[in-house]
């Protein structure tokens, strides 16, 4: 009787162990602390919303292991390695900030783990076996083209750039330079500042001395408010263009009235209720808001959480097709199947766009992923 009872208990434990092994493991890295936490905390809330929206895939449970990189690229790399090598996750999602995400992506490629980036990054080498990383943020040139088109329509001929002195600032400036040149608009200043700086006075004075027709901002989140406040204090009344990284409650809180009038390119979710009724993104964007409220007990007030939510939707779609191959979660074969599935993603509707990834296109979105909005008293008004 004791032997039979022991065998029964062993069988139950074995079954539980096998079930646990069948769980799909997601390694999620974000900046819950440090200078990029105003992005990282919303990223984490977006993943929570994704779990509330879809928590099981093909009968398999999904478990998320979340780590804080403290807004430090070195920690981003270290966390990615821990998740892949020790926790044996099937896929990586992260992180907040372009330098941190680039560091994480480099590690993911080296370890041959598929990854969904939720911050914009420059192209990374494919590595063995093909590309491993897709991203949900719109390509910077697509967004910046909206700014240049708007400037050209207003007859503006010159623009000054004030942005971060890091990979994100580089992406924004390079995109502006290329689009402006094609539109015969001259970039007359390229001023940079660190996210941790407490003053940008010198940069502002140099930019204003160039007498630009407009100024474009290449900062995000709370540090992105610094030049906005400085320009307002100096009485700047000219056109001011932002970017999708300024769609943030923290930015609005810090910038206050100084933010009024800023025109930003961003994703459709920012003005979901203002989209046409037949727009497929509208339905998903409104569903995201409901899932976010369910998971976090509050309404979303940023755009960063929607990028990680879209990352979850892309992951869910890919995981369904990877499971259909017969590969088991936790195995190298499943990682490879997930990679293959990511790069054959087709018409997955998210909050920021409609995603179709290929080995030649890690962004996966088209012009439907961009709208133009203007900040008015803490709200984002959809522009024609």
Automatic annotation (TrEMBL):
UniProt cross-references to PANTHER family, sorted A to Z: BLR7848 PROTEIN, LEUCINE-SPECIFIC-BINDING PROTEIN
Pfam families listed in its UniProt record: Peripla_BP_6
InterPro entries for this protein: BCAA_transport, Leu-bd, Peripla_BP_I
Signal peptide: 1-22
Keywords associated with the record: Amino-acid transport, Signal, Transport
Name of protein: ABC transporter substrate-binding protein
Species classification: Bacteria, Pseudomonadati, Pseudomonadota, Alphaproteobacteria, Hyphomicrobiales
Family the UniProt entry places it in: Belongs to the leucine-binding protein family.
Residue span, Leucine-binding protein domain: 24-365
CDD domains referenced in this protein's UniProt entry, alphabetically: PBP1_ABC_RPA1789-like (cd06333)
Organism: Bradyrhizobium denitrificans
């Amino acid at each position: 009787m004791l032997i039979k009872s022991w065998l029964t208990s062993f069988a139950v434990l074995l079954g539980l162990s096998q079930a646990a092994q069948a769980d799909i493991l997601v390694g999620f890295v974000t900046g819950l602390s440090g200078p990029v936490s105003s992005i990282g905390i919303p990223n984490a809330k977006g993943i929570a919303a994704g779990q509330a929206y879809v928590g099981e895939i093909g009968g398999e449970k999904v478990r998320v292991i979340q780590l804080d990189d403290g807004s430090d690229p070195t920690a981003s790399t270290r966390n990615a390695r821990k998740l892949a090598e020790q926790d044996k996750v099937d896929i990586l999602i992260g992180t907040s900030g372009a330098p941190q995400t680039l560091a994480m992506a480099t590690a993911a490629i080296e370890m041959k783990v598929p990854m969904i980036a939720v911050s914009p990054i420059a192209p990374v080498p494919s590595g063995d076996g093909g590309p491993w990383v897709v991203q949900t943020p719109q390509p910077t040139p697509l967004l910046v083209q909206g700014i240049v088109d708007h400037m050209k329509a207003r007859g503006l001929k010159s623009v000054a750039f004030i942005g971060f002195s890091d990979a994100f600032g580089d992406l924004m400036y390079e995109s502006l330079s290329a689009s402006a040149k094609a539109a015969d608009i001259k970039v007359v200043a390229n001023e940079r500042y660190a996210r941790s700086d407490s003053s940008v006075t010198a940069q502002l004075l140099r930019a204003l001395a160039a007498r630009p027709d407009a100024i474009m901002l290449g900062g995000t989140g709370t540090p992105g408010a610094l030049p906005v406040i400085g320009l307002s204090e100096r009485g700047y009344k000219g056109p001011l263009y932002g970017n999708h990284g300024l769609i943030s409650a923290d930015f609005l809180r810090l910038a206050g009235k100084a933010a009024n009038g800023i025109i930003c390119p961003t994703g459709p979710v920012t003005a979901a209720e203002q989209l046409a009724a037949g727009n497929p993104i509208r339905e998903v964007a409104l569903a995201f808001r409901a899932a976010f409220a369910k998971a976090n007990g509050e309404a979303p007030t940023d755009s960063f959480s929607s990028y990680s939510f879209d990352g979850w939707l892309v992951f869910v779609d890919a995981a369904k097709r990877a499971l259909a191959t017969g590969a088991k979660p936790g195995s190298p074969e499943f990682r490879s199947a997930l990679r293959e599935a990511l790069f054959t993603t087709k018409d997955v509707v998210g909050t920021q766009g409609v995603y179709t990834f290929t080995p030649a296109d890690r962004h996966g979105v088209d012009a439907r992923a961009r709208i133009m909005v203007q900040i008015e008293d803490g709200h984002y008004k959809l522009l024609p």
